[in-house]
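Dear U.,

For the methods section draft, I wanted the exact inputs and outputs in one place so we can describe them consistently. I've listed the two proteins in the order they'll appear in the manuscript figures. Please don't edit the token lines directly; just add comments below if something needs changing.

First protein:
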Amino acid sequence: MLQTLRRFLLGLPFFLCACADDGTCKIASVGDLQVLNSRGSPIVKASVNGHPVAFIVDSGAQFSSIWPNQVDKLGLVSQFRQVRMHGVGGETMGDIVIADKLGLGSATASDVPFIAVGNLFDGHAIDGLPVVGLFGADFLSSYDVIFDLPEHRINIYDIHGCKKQLPEWRGNFSKIKVEHWWRDSTKIVLHLKLNGHPIEAFLDSGAFRTLISRDDALEAGVRKSDLKQDRQGLGFGIDDEKTARFFHRFDSLELGSFRFNHPVLSVAETDNSLLGAEFLRHYQVWIPQRGDWIYAKPASAARTTPASAEPNH
């Protein structure tokens, strides 16, 4: 998304023993973002055309977006083109708009495209800042991103010329195999076990709770009659339409070396299961820009700068 990003480095590049051909491994911090909220999907401060605002950080959204009612308020310019967007609950259409200036962390960008779509959170504010949209995977997938929500931080790194860079975290951490969805390479596919049954789920910081597709729940041994006895609620899809949710207590959920016993998870009619923000609220998770692995450990790691050590499994 940020084709013209100008990076203000937060210090000199690190020089590590896992080096490029010219002998240097360069790691530049694009931003150390403060997470403003303590529950649910992370929200960070930004500016659009000089207006202080806040955005939800949504790794499950293909495109970054602005609520349509904010387009004129923030001075964005319509391109008179639309795109089709897919997500929970189906699909919807959105208008392409351009922001002259975007500020995020220690970086600024010019001529930044957004999709004008969604109204569910329009009118919400945090710390006096209006929540105006989503930062999606089109931005996040351009960098190494470390979600450190227990410490209310998201670190964004621009890494070049490094081989086998790994997080310099104290204690044990897990290296978790992932794939990238064939329809959208920005979506991170995790391999989970639900009641011991293998399923796939997208890593989605924009999902307040982990969401299990009805098909995955049934294949994991849940009966339709079980769901009818569960507590019910409502969720919202990409088109802001309400969708029914069932809150079901499963026997177990496993991700890599992490096991969660008797979790209560949302179940809904959706194409894909999602590992949501409540997982990220209790773990540090490093998502490299390249490769087929992510790294995770329980909260309280002291350092989150990528380094060149081998992981402890």
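Second protein (the one for the lower panel):
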Amino acid sequence: MRRRLVVAVAGLGVAGLTVTLSGSPADASHELTRLTSVPAVVDARGVTAPNVISPGLTEHPVAQGSMKLENPTGAVPYYGYDGDAPTLVPDPAVTQAPGHNAEASKTEPDKNTYLRLWGLHGADPHYDYGTHFLYQGHETGSPGYLTRINLDADDAHRVTLLATTQVDGTPIPDIDGSTWDPWARRLLFTTESGGNASVLQATPDLNSTVQDVSAVTGRGGYEGIQNDSDGNLWIVEDVGGSVVGTKAKNPNSFLYRLVLTDKTDLTKGGRLEALQVISRRTGQPITFQPVDAAHPDGGAFTDDQKDLGNYGPAFATRWVTVHDTAVDTSGKPFDANALAKAAGATPFKRPENGQFRPGSDFREFFFDATGDTNVLSSANASYGGWGGIFTLTQDRPGADTGTLSLFYAGDQAHTGFDNVTFLDTRHVAFVEDAGDTVHTQRAAFDSGYLFATDADYPHGAQPVRFLAEGRDPSATEDNLLGALGNGFQNEGDNEITGIHYSDGDPTPGGILGAKEPKLFRDGWRLFWNQQHGDNDAWEIVPARG
């Protein structure tokens, strides 16, 4: 019997909102009977707080930042810490100063990719590492590196260091996004790391072969990356623009599609495209407007930006070519962001991640815009400062044209959206990374929200808060130390990242969006990372009893 997931919403609040799931009696032991929206966790200075999760759900850690790697190095001894200081918590005998750290640097494991693979190896040649693996790149620290959580293994073999360098010996830059490309049989990792921002492909086993493919993908502030059913790669960029007005930012990031020459081999090249949105007012493309004497606010407060930030009729879209390796045969990386601007693509306010809706045959792509991440932004009220969620609809994944709609307009309680995952064909989870400033301003930490794709959000419906993140003791200390201005290097409050729901299928039929997810059945598993602080990697499961 097919499950039916119903979201009941009313008004602008979230208290009492529910998600009800029904299924056959045979599935009852694996069923959630009810998800209730929980309150946000209050941000109080110097106070630790646990996570709160909807009744019917529970979570358990599958790894923690202080877990020793099974194959540590001097530079990378732990899952979530560099080896640049002897202690993992602030040493009261050490005076914190720039270049003289009181605790080790945290590496912030970011997005997760879950896979079921056979015959993989680890540091112990006599150990069976099982078949269930969770991969992640690390967002901060030096060097950058790739890890694999061996979900079937004991603690001594739980986390394997896969690589710290590329095939040419270049250090791996800090990583943001990840996915599995089943045609190439490679993990793909994206980076936002300034001048060496890259897209890397990596083999999934010990001593991973890591290769920079930025001559094909270009370089930008890339984070989200997903395949479609044609083998194209969709890449979502997170580059903050110039600050204008009061705490507002000029739209400066793009949505890309890479049409590959050979989907089994990224190195053979392809055509990079960026999304162009057509103005409802003028019929002309909405393009990047730099800050200059004639436009002191850039494009942050235009009529078109106002339309993008508010509910209304759909926009027409088309893809424009920004680079083609058949034309540029230099084999060198290129600045995708600059070329997207030159090609007349449409900038958004930090659209970090996106996924295809399962059951849509890859015709519906949901992506978020993080926004300005400041309660005081003068763009919040009408110009998309809170961020939001968009839906791009096309006749097929490779179509040249489509339509764009604002699915959800953010507000103070729902802002800074970052990672995304679908839980079934009609329900999608978006999680916040609002940042310490917003936490303090609104007195609430980040949350994970469940949205119904058919809910009437323009008329007051609201999502279910299924996860209210707290702040662990380590993050609480780091938040206080970071405010002292003494060169403290680690991030403060925890954030929600790496939310990922998958059955781990490594074949082309298993790419995200291809299958109808089964809620906690048939091998589907839900993970998220509590980044910063203790850097716990969690698995969410149904509560028993």
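Candidate sentences for the figure legend, describing the second protein: The chain has five helices and 31 strands. The helical segments are 214-217, 303-308, 336-342, 436-442, 473-482.

Thanks,
Y.
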